[in-house]
Design goal:
By secondary structure, the chain is mainly beta. The chain has a domain of about 90 residues: Jelly Rolls, CATH 2.60.120. Helix content is about 0%, strand content about 55%. Strands 1, 2, 3, 5, 6, 7 and 8 form a seven-stranded antiparallel sheet that branches.
């Protein structure tokens, strides 16, 4: 059994209970869920100027260390975005197809779990 550097690895949670770890940035495993952990020192590290949308699955966003705000666009035209503050040891589930973004309060460690496909970034307008 080997240790895994969570900040340098892509971890695939595959159907049937198999887990695979490989170098981050390699070819993503498309058959299961992806676990990603990363250090976020500035808003640029979390793409604060963009919305992320996961079209094929929900996403768990969790704060392992630090404190940040998770913004999720409300459903329906003209509705404001919703915000939850995540602190160390807390998580939120982002519904499938909902635009979301993070803004840091302090440097943090973020852990996310979602499918490795069907995700895109959209530039925020009117910032």
């Amino acid at each position: 059994m080997d240790t895994i550097d969570l900040f340098d690895s892509a971890i695939g949670l595959r159907p049937g209970g198999e887990i695979r770890a490989g170098r981050r940035g390699g070819e993503p495993d498309q058959d299961g869920w992806r676990l990603t952990a990363f250090h976020a020192k500035t808003d640029a590290d979390v793409h604060a100027g963009h919305w992320q949308v996961n079209l094929e699955a929900e996403e768990v966003v969790s704060c392992l260390v630090g404190k940040f705000r998770l913004y999720v666009c409300a459903e329906g035209a003209g509705r404001r975005e919703e915000m939850v503050r995540l602190t160390a040891g807390t998580a939120a589930i982002v519904p499938r197809g909902r635009r979301h973004r993070i803004e840091l309060d302090i440097p943090s460690i973020v852990l996310a779990v979602t499918l490795p496909r069907g995700s895109r970034l959209e530039e925020r307008q009117g910032r």
